[in-house]
Structures are given as structure tokens and as C-alpha cells.
Amino acid sequence: MTLSGPLRKAAPSTGGAPAATRRRRSRRIPYPLLLPALLGLVFLVLPLVGLLVRAPWSSLPEQLTSPEVWQALRLSLICATSATVVSLVLGVPLAWLLARTEIPGRRVIRALVTLPLVLPPVVGGVALLLVLGRNGIVGRWLDSAFGITLPFTTAGVVVAEAFVAMPFLVISVEGALRAADPRYEEAAATLGASRLTAFRRVTLPLIAPGIGAGAVLAWSRALGEFGATITFAGNFPGRTQTMPLAVYLAMERDPEAAIALSLVLLAVSVAVLAGLRERWLSTT
Amino acid sequence: MTPTAPDARPALDALLRVERTAFRLDLALTAAPGETVALLGPNGAGKSTALRALAGLLPLGSGHLRLDGVTLEEPATGLHTPAEERPVGVVFQDYLLFPHLSALDNVAFGLRCQGLRKAAARAAALPWLERMGLAEHSAAKPGRLSGGQAQRVALGRALAVRPRLLLLDEPLAALDARTRLDVRSQLRRHLAEFEAVAVLVTHDPLDAMVLADRLVVIEDGRQVQSGTPAEIARHPRTDYIARLVGLNLYRGTAAGHTVSLPDGGPELVTTEELTGAAFVAFPPAAVTLHRERPDSSARNVWPATVDGLDLHGDQVRVDLSGALPMAADLTPAAVAELDLAPGSSVWAAVKAAQTRAYPA
Q1: Residue B236: CB partners within 8 Å, gap ≥ 6?
Q2: Contacts of residue B86 in chain A, CB cutoff 8 Å?
Q3: Which residues, in sequence order, are CB contacts of A279 under 8 Å at separation 6+?
Q4: Among A183, A186, A192, whose Cβ lies nearest the Cβ of B113?
Q5: Fewer CB within a 10 Å sphere, N or C end of chain B?
């Protein structure tokens, strides 16, 4: 403690004064940047705070234990998970095709795959109806040949969610594949592995983090899906009414229930984000 | 390492022709069973292209590839056996061990591809790890292995499927100098035990000379010279080879500072202290020639006979026979002063400080 006095006194005498002012100047953030930045932050955070503040905490246990909420949450989780499984089964091979082969028109295919990312979901729902609806091009055949109808069924919810969510998975997995060294597949080939075996036993484990991240992303996108679902599958409680649809409907007759439902979705989203954070850091 | 009858069919018979923009590989390559051939050449000479073509990772433009009398590839007849169906093992330069599998499962990978169940494949892979002296590391992931250990796992993985052709791409390039000595002598032992053909690619003449029975020097996609390491060192055909394989290399038994060559050969005095089997190497430029027995500080002095003289750049390479056959590099002025000609008797001297000895 006796040393701190002389040391502190010595610091300014060795050119400390200009250094201190320089540091203070560099710490100042220009107002034209600071004000919009703070405003943006408030804009993003305030609605969430509002949700927490206005939450009917006293009646929340009662709200959340009502059968309607559990029905919608259960349906949401089942459909989002099913849509993620569909996306994995179809999307991982599609990503492999885009990343590892020289198929003709690959750039066009890639653009088509990413189109649902930017397409308004309602438009996707309309398009799905036109193709898979009872009078759609494929839907009519599905109906007459197999007796399968997709619109306004739980399976239809899965189809709509997968349509919107799969591009997220494909893009994520394709990126992981491009980052993975293709020479591991060559090494596997020299050991007698067919292309399929090499993919299954070498490539797939190597890109597992990318697949995991893509699956979580697709799952959360599917969970929040609204536009395509309500257009293609309708809004039938217990069958096609997922959480976002329930929130929208509840807003009109029982705002407190809507807030409770929203809180559940917010909690799920925060959990997903927390789970993803490390994944993102390790794969990018 | 077994000598082959001259009429024996080569185990490897390849004519590798690959054309790419601004590059052409045109290389005939044959090898007897048990032979280790080194492809030696500068970067961009086409060594790796040749290796990839042999492995089936790069299709031939024309030519052929036959292994043990079976044609694996012949573009003229449209025959191309894919890599996974060739009895070829590859040790890659950076090993490419599968990072998610343990050392044991890496070695077992090829066996599982042959249809063995997991337990059976592991049981068959373990002896290979034991042979590589890595049994206690069988559960380790590649990331936890040292460079030398990873190299041995890669070798075990390639050998476990019992290939008829073993390809090694710069097998020692990724190792630091100390590990390199150990791994080189181990690799030499494994290659000597290997009963089929081994082809290794390297740009390091010392690796090539220690590991291979025969060198094939390639430049610009073509063979410029082929022969035993000693032949090539003594009769380099191009300036590049003369500089590249400027090395006299001997194998003998070390005891302290001396290495005795086999069959009653002379002894070499070295600065390193070793015991057991050892290599001694010194560059041709380290050899001085004298008409009379020199009275200098050089500890290694032998009588020799001049067999030939070749001018390479501004140096003359003198091929010497005698108790210790060797190559010597002299200036044309020195050659003229000594009045050297084929058949001349001379004394060759090498300072101990200019030799390098290391365990074999």
C-alpha cells in the first residue's frame, strides 16, 4: 500500500497525461450513432419487457394448465419435431447433392431451395394448396390413388412447416459440408468404403454440429410458423391449431390467455437461443 | 526386399497418362513384389498426380494400370475400377485420420468396409496397432496423438486391409526433425516386412534413399532417371538430380564414434556417438581427392579408383569404386590439377565433422 503513492505519482510524469486524454476521447461514442443504437435496442427489448410486465402472473398457473393450452403446445411440439425430421431426411441429402456433386443446373437448384426463405409464408401456403389441395396437381392423385388428403389435417401442418423450415436446414448443412475436408471421403474410399458408406460413417459424423445447428434452426422456424399453416391447414383446435394460431385467436376473445401462450413460446425461444449460442460459435 | 527373377512378371505395371491444363503426366512405372519404389521430384513434378491416379482418385487419360496381372484401369477399353474396389492402401501426407473415431476404430474402418462386424473388425485391428507399438493408445482420438503416433496409425489403417499396393504421400513431411528420425527407421522396417509393392512420393532425397529400393526421379511429369539410390547418386543424369541426390549413404553397425560397414568393409569415423545398426551419409562435396595419401586432419581416408567423370553445372561428379564406393564433387580446376581420368588411382578423404550418422 505504501508503494501505490509514488507509483501513481510517477505515472503522469512519464507522458501519462496525453495518453489519458487520448483514451478518454476514444471512449466517447458519437451521438449520431449512439442515439439510434439505443433506440433500436429499446425497440427490440421493450415488447418483450411489456410481455413480462403485463403477464397475468396471478392467473398464469391456471391459464397454463388449461387443456386448450396443452393441446396447442403438444400439437406445436409434435408438428415442429415432425417437420424437422422430414427436413432432416430430405434436406441433408439435398445439401450433400448441392455441396458435393456437379449436377447440371446446380446454381438454379440452389436458388430454388433458398426461395422459401424469402417467400412470404402465406404465399407458400397458397402454393401448397394449389399443388397438394384436393383439386391440386398432386393432391388429386394422392386422394384418388391412396385416399390421402393433406390440407386441413395435422399432416398438412407438418407439410406446411417443413416447406418453410427445410431451407434453413439445407443452407446450414451445405455450409458445414463445404467446410468439411472432402479428402476424408477419399481416404474412406481408399479403405474400401462406397460413397454411401463414406457419407454415413465419415461425412455425417464430421458435419454433425452443422446438422444439429440446422435442425434447431429449422425446428424453431417450424414452431413459430403461422402464415403457411393457417392457409394450408386451417385453424382447427386439437388438429391443426398450433401455438401461434392459438395466440392469434386468443388475442380476440381472451388477451390474458394470449399473453400466457406467448410467454410459453418466448420461454421456448430463449431456451433454443441459449442452446444454439455455443453451436454457432463452434461451427462458424 | 526379395530379389526377383528377371523373367518374373512385375506386380505393378502402370503407364500413367493424365492431361490437365498446362500439365501432362506421362509415367511408366513397374515394380516387383516386395519392392519399394520412391517417386522423387520437385514440387509440381506430378508425384501426387501419379499417386492419386494409382489410388483411383484421379482417372487416367490413357495408359493402363495392372496389379498382380489384373487390369484395374485401361481407358482404351473403358475399364475404370473405382478407388474403393482397388486393393490399394494409401497413407496420406497429413494422414487424414477420421477425427471422430478412436485409433483402433480408424484401423478397423477398412475391415468394417469389408463386411466385418464391429467386434470382429476391432479384434482384427488390434494386432496392427500392437505392431505399430500403439496398443496402449487404441482408445485415443487422433487429436490426442503425436505426429509420429498419428503416422503409425495411418500406416496401420492402410495395411490392415492387406493391400497389394501401398501408396505413401510424403510420409515424413509433416513431422518435426527429431520425430522424423525415429519414424523413418520404423517405417523402413515396416516397408521391408511388407510383401507387396509400395510406392512412396517424396521430395526429400534422404527419405527416398533410406526407404526405397529404387528411385524414380520425375520432372515435369516425366521420368528423368530410375535406379537404385547408389546408382542415381553416382550417375545423376541431370543437374537437378545431381543437386538433389548429392548424398553418399551407407548402412553399417555403429560402436561409439565408428560405424563398421558389413562384409569386412572399412570403418567410418563420425562425430555422433551411436550403437547398433546405423546409417552414415555425407555429401559428395565433402569428399576431397589426393594423388598421395593425405597427411591431413581427415580421419576417413581410403584408396579408390576413378570409374567415371561427369560435368554438372560448374561441378564435376567423380564416380569412385573401391572398398567404399562413393561420389565426389570437384571443381573442373581440381580435376585438371589431379589429372583425373577413368582408371586413376586416388586417395579419398572425408572429415568426420562432415558425416551424418543416425540409427537405422
Answers
A1: B225, B242, B244, B245, B310, B312, B317
A2: 190
A3: A209, A212, A213, A216
A4: A192
A5: N
Nearest to A190 among B90, B99, B100 (CB): B90
Per the CB < 8 Å rule, is A189 touching B100? Answer: no
Residues of B with CB under 8 A from a CB of A: 55-57, 82-86, 88-90, 92, 96, 98-100, 109-110, 112-114, 157-158, 161
Instruction: For A30-63, write each residue's pLDDT tens digit.
Output: 989 999 999 999 999 999 898 888 888 888 888 8
Q: d(Cα B45, Cα B62) in Å, to the nearest integer?
A: 19
Name the grid cell of A118: 424469402
- Locate cell 470382429: which residue? B120
Q: Searching chain A, which residue's CA lies closest to the CA of residue B108? A: A191
User: Which of chain A's residues have a Cβ under 8 Å away from the Cβ of B92?
Assistant: 183, 187
pLDDT digits (tens, 9 = 90+) for A195-236: 999 999 999 999 998 998 899 889 989 999 999 999 999 998
Whether A191 sits inside 8 A of B82 (CB atoms) is: no
pTM of the model: 0.74
Report ipTM (2 d.p.). 0.75
Residues 6+ apart with CB under 8 A from B322: B302, B303, B304, B305, B348
- Residue B324, pLDDT > 60, answer yes
Bridge partners, B90 (sequence order): B167
Whether residue B100 and residue A191 make contact (CB cut-off 8 A), yes or no, is no
Domains in chain A, start-ordered, CATH in brackets? Answer: 64-283 (1.10.3720.10)
Say whether B158 and A190 touch across the interface (CB within 8 A).
yes
CA distances from A123 to A141, A221, B174, B270, B311 (A): 23, 16, 55, 84, 81
- Domains, chain B, ranges and CATH? 12-97+145-244 (3.40.50.300), 248-359 (2.40.50.100)
Q: What is the mean pLDDT of residues A254-278?
A: 82
- The pLDDT tens digits for B284-303 are 888 989 988 887 666 788 89
Q: What is the DSSP letter of A28?
A: P
Find the closest chain A residue to B92 by CA distance: A187
> Are the C-beta atoms of residues B102 and B199 closer than 8 Å to each other?
no
